[in-house]
């Protein structure tokens, strides 16, 4: 099969990879209908994270089940499925508490690489969710978004305790941040402040439910949030970047007793204990337990209540994955969909 | 009046201080029935925190109202009162959300110094709570504990989401940690693991409700917690020390999706963002909103449901405050009560 492989910083190639096979009786093989490039793929692409080159790339996926192992009972060949970027058994104590991304048997799908024609999905029963039928083509991008960025933005909004009467700040205007806006809106937040300097992303944020846009950053960004919140700070902040400055922005924009949902994959971040202590904020985040939300997200997409697929603003054939990485790296695209 | 003043590291003197007076119409003056030395007083005492010598010391207090300003309506002269170590208006939006320690008008009582015969209490209506009558002498230590260490341990247990069916680890066997054990027990935690190497503190922890004692620390301490929790980690961890190693201990002892209540006043702590991210824990803490809990705590003490006053294992006249500091510094005493 064909698949994207990172050979070193900036060097993504689509090449022949071995067809996946059932390894464990709980595996499934899917034929990908669509895959995509994630903001977190840019960390190794930019050489900012060791990945062990050459490495197969991609962890988001939707597709049709080709084959299942003998112990798989909840999905069958021919079904259209969406799965999380962490494979999970969905039965352990951690999964049952709603933290499938911390499953004791979890497998990181990035280690398998779903920017490809086929993929092996470990722990298929605990990882995949079948859609009610074959989706209309226009639903594919939204279902694909559910595999990671939507589920991650959703978790950010849950962790930030977004809800009625709340003012929610979203730090980061990538696909996750934008999906955080959408989730905060879905949860009934009163005011949603998107921090963004990019006109097209601001527009999408507004379409997803942002009521205000803040273009300032750093101390000026904090000052602007304070102005908009009677000097108190926001009730809820979704941090969707993962840098020291974005975490600082989040901490200083949250009122005492408020909640930060941090879902930007943290790199080289050190949180000063004293500042965190005196901030009195709630901090929760990490790799999103997407599997927990998938049934609800699929239902909302299927009924066309939400349309997160709008985060994809560039579609390319899998063979042009390298161009997709470049477009995201240069911020020419919010998110790139790849068709195998 | 007489009061304790820190003149430099290790140099506490009880000397003449000016009698306090009503400054703002919302002030009250109280005559202290008892004061005490806090673990956090040891930071400047040990020269680990700049305090601006000479500095009046103490922020915990119970006593009888002597005088109130013209705008004070909820307490009156002659009443016995307990107050928080933060003065708060208890009316602002932050207070109403239960975060009086983040009150927009808060005043740190440590800046006033309650290891003294009298103290001015700013924002008396929002800070003080009167007891139902004059307390029996044996209730004084428990009511004094409510002013900080009990309220802080309580907040730790709330922030750690201690409750029925939960395994709670308490890091730190000082008065706050021990009160955290008591609070976790009150909230119905199934299992309470106190981390302590001191026999007398272990004994008090057991009396307060600890079901297990772990004497190991660092990696060995984490390994022991994992053994006791099926390799998953605790649901809830109360961190009551405030050092890098205690925070690390807390983070690594908590299961994915679990809660850390951190109430140890953080000093020189930097939390690694990536470890925090992948731990999937909830982190919440800071200076406790004691005022939020005071009515309930006073009621529980008054009805003799809880007896947190047992944390005081040394009582000295105020004049011997210096010996009280030494005893706590050398860990000869858990907590020292001072009688003016």
From TrEMBL, chains A, B:
KW Oxidoreductase (keyword) present: yes
Ranges in coiled-coil conformation: none
Transmembrane portions of the chain: none
Chain ranges of the Enoyl reductase (ER) domain: 8-338
Keyword Acetylation: no
Names of required cofactors: Zn(2+)
Alphabetical list of Pfam families matching this protein: ADH_N, ADH_zinc_N
Keywords tagged on the record: Metal-binding, Oxidoreductase, Zinc
Domain of life assignment: Bacteria
Family indicated by similarity: Belongs to the zinc-containing alcohol dehydrogenase family.
Protein name: Zinc-dependent alcohol dehydrogenase family protein
Lineage: Bacteria, Bacillati, Actinomycetota, Actinomycetes, Streptosporangiales
